[in-house]
Every structure is written in structure tokens, then in C-alpha cells.
# Entry
Amino acid sequence: MRSTWRTGLGILALLTAISGCATPTASPTAPSVTQVGPSAGSLGSRVPASSATATADRPRTTVGSTLPPAVLGSVDISSGLSCPTTFPAGEAKVPVTTPAATADRLVPDIPLTSGLLCSYAGSNMAPMAGRPLGAQKVLAGDLTTLQSDLRWQPPNSGFGACSSVGGPQTNFLLALRPNAGPPLWVFAALDPNNCEPTTNGRFVSLDRSGMQFAASLAAGRWMPAPPRENASRCDAAGRFGQQDELVPPGVTAVRICVTIANTDTEKTVRITDAARLQPLLDAADRAKTGPTTGSCAQAVDPKTGQSLLPTFFTVAFDYATGPSVRLSVADGCRPGLDNGNLQSSDTAPVSAAVKKLLG
# Structure
């Protein structure tokens, strides 16, 4: 028996405050999907890669933990940005794909002067190409947070469970004006199954940004991502760099969540003491990793031949700057570690460190 790693996030909230276009109606409730979870982390006082405790043959990211500050201006309403009158056809889902030279992230680290959000209402049961423009809004204020949020998103792993509920879907196009050159475009969607990844036509994100785009369009300025429906207290969006390491460097705190057996109660602890956290970070750093397959195989009782129910822990690693990363730890499942991009079967040392922190 195999357990699915990605969480079914439930049905997205209604798009209620967007001026200029109709609000989609609520879709039926999506079936829940069992999760062993995505994402991971690491700590500022961690052992360096060159030390004996680091995994020598695993590549380490050079960009995941410290992004250079972006130089950004305020929105210029006369910037000349405009929304396509209909949603574009094609797999890229944007009018113009980002140039390959700057497509290693959703948006490049270049000065941006203005942003425009466009929305197109339709249904996931019919083609979205050709749907008419609904609402459009120039984003007021500084775009630094917008650029940072999009640059931190990790790449899509290609795996994830999606329900198949039919219902209203709203597609978004974000146009960004750089200091020089043509506009940059980013696509996101608010769909009933939360399955549409964010993309610039080349880079496809692990994140689904539809709710954040909807909130930003409603407010007329870039807004924080709303909390995900029925989210754990250890929920985390993911962080660029987790595609290279289970635990990108720079963690300042760790949250550990576990559901108490035979209850719906989630026990959560948060630890900030670097000395206490270091054994967990060292164990995660030593774990041999490979690309996630989105699932794990449950252990089998040798006496009965029955699958054993795994014990799941969710560990969220918090950073001083940028989003948190979530690592799922599954005792009794192989591979038992997964951060949404990478997985590992070196579960025991990580699990032991987690249990010690839980007390």
C-alpha cells in the first residue's frame, strides 16, 4: 500500500471582493487526500558542508537562503501595461514566456516599476483559452514583497495528488514592467482542486498562488497569501533551495506537529534553541536524497502480512527571511522523508531527533 505525499488542500475560498467581475460560486467539497506532506528546513548554526557531518556527494544550493535585495519602484499607472482581452491559448498560459536567461525563478532579480493583475472567469470543465477579460487592476505601492514572494517559490516536482471536482475557475495574469525591456508575465489560477501551478511559461512553481493573486486583485495591492483551508499549524509554503537540499540553511526555529492517536488533536511544539535543534538538522543534512516520487510504501507486519499504519510527523523550519519549509517524517513508510521536491529513506535518525524534541 502506498501513501500520497501531497495534501489535498480542500476547496479554495470564494473570490468575493474583486471589483469589475462576477464572483464565482462555491464548488462542491473536494475529497480529502491523505498526506505525508511536503517541505523541509535547516538552521543558522548548522554544521558546514565541508564538515564530517555533511553529506559530501549532495549538491548544495548557492541561492536558497539569502536572496539579494531587489531594487524596485512604485507602480506607475501610465506604464502602458495592458491585459489581454481574452485568456491566451497554449501550454505556456502566458502571453509571452519569460526569456530563458532569466527563467530560473518565477521573476528575475531586476528592477520592476509597475504591476498589473488581470482575471478571467470560467470553469475547469471547459477550455479557459478565449475566456474574456473580467477585472484588471494596477497594483498600488512598492513591489518589493511581490518580487520576493515569487522568487522564493521552489520549482514544481511533477508529483502531487489532485482531486477532480468540477467547478468555477478564475485564471490570473500578472504583468510586471521592468526598468528596461518588455513586460514579464506570471500565471496563477483559483481552481476547485488547487492543482494549477504558478508559472511564467518556463519556470513552473511547486506553489499554487491563486488565492494570493485573488486577494491582491481585490485589494489593488500585493497581499500576503491567505491561510490554506484546514491547514496544520506546521503548514509551510516551501522555499527555493529545497529542490537541492532537504534542509536549506538558515533556520531560526522549528515547529513540530503530530496528531494524537485516535483523536483530531494536533500536538505542536516550537523550538528556537540552536543547540537543541542541531541534532535534527545534522540528521536531515546527512540524509541521502533523490527526487520525490510523491508517495511512500508502508511497512508490512512480517507475522500477519498486513500493512502497518505509519506515524506521521510534520516539521516546519522557519527562517529569518523568506518562507518556511515543511518536511514530512513518516515512521513505517519508505521513503519516510519528503519535502515536496526531495525524498529520503534515511528516516530513523531524523525521526529519533524529532521524537526527542517532542519529549
